[in-house]
Amino acid sequence: NMGINIGIVTGIAAISRIKVTYIGEQGHAGTVPMNLRKDVTLALAETILKVREVVLATNANAVGTVGYIKIEPNVPNVIPGKVDFIIEIRSIHAKLKKELMANTLKQINNISKKYNVNSRVQIIVDEIPTLIDKQIVALIESSAKNLGYSTYRMISGAGHDASYMARITKIGMLFIPNRGGSHNPNEKTDLEDIIRGTKTLTNILKTLSE
């Protein structure tokens, strides 16, 4: 949307995931009074809203998602007795991500008490952010600008294999414009942008090989 030709990645956000299970009491949807229910759906709903609330308070320095939910028995006339879901938090700031994780775990505990359900939590992913070497960032920037392309320094919220390579060597990443989103069937990159990205990458490799 910015009309920029080349995005220069300065860091890759780290991912943390918490697997949460709420266990309540399964029952008939028509016979159990509302005030006597141990409904895991209510706990799930409030947890999702709390994740959004605590992450929004960071002023765009983190993102939070609940993208996996498995509820049992998942039929319309039964109060669910169990739900498994995964909370994912991403941030380039390690300290902030740690604080968000702690806050989220606290919220889960409070919510389980509020709705009289049991909770189990397991941290299944807990990565560290990747910061890209400043010399590599400058090289990508100059390689693009020498071709007359506009550039923009940015954080990658998506994870990449390069973050693992960064443990043993310097890495660099560049982005080209993509319309329609990512992980979306409508995503599309124009041929002209692919050519710009390829030419920039060629310039980078030439410089590194000298």
CATH class of the largest domain: Alpha Beta
Assign an overall shape: elongated
CATH names the topology of the largest domain as Alpha-Beta Plaits
Most strands sheet: 4 strands, mixed
Distance between the termini: 36 Å
- Give the tally of structural domains: 2
Question: Mean pLDDT score, rounded?
Answer: 94
Low-pLDDT runs of 5+ residues are none
**Radius of gyration, in angstroms, nearest whole number:** 22 Å
The structure class reads alpha+beta
Task: Give me a quick take on this structure.
The chain is an alpha+beta fold and 210 residues long.
Note down, in words, how this protein is organized:
With 210 residues, the protein is an alpha+beta fold. It folds into 2 domains: 6-12 and 130-209, Aminopeptidase (3-Layer(aba) Sandwich); 14-126, Alpha-Beta Plaits. Helix content is 35%, strand content 29%. The protein has helices at 40-56, 94-114, 134-145, 162-165, 191-209; strands spanning 6-12, 14-23, 27-28, 62-72, 78-79, 82-91, 118-126, 130-131, 151-156, 174-175. Strands 1, 8, 9 and 10 form a 4-stranded mixed β-sheet that branches. Helix 1 (40-56) packs antiparallel against helix 2 and helix 3 (134-145) packs across helix 5. The longest helix is centred in the middle third of the chain and has 21 residues, at 94-114. The two termini are 36 Å apart. 25% of the residues are buried. The model has no long low-confidence stretch (mean pLDDT 94).
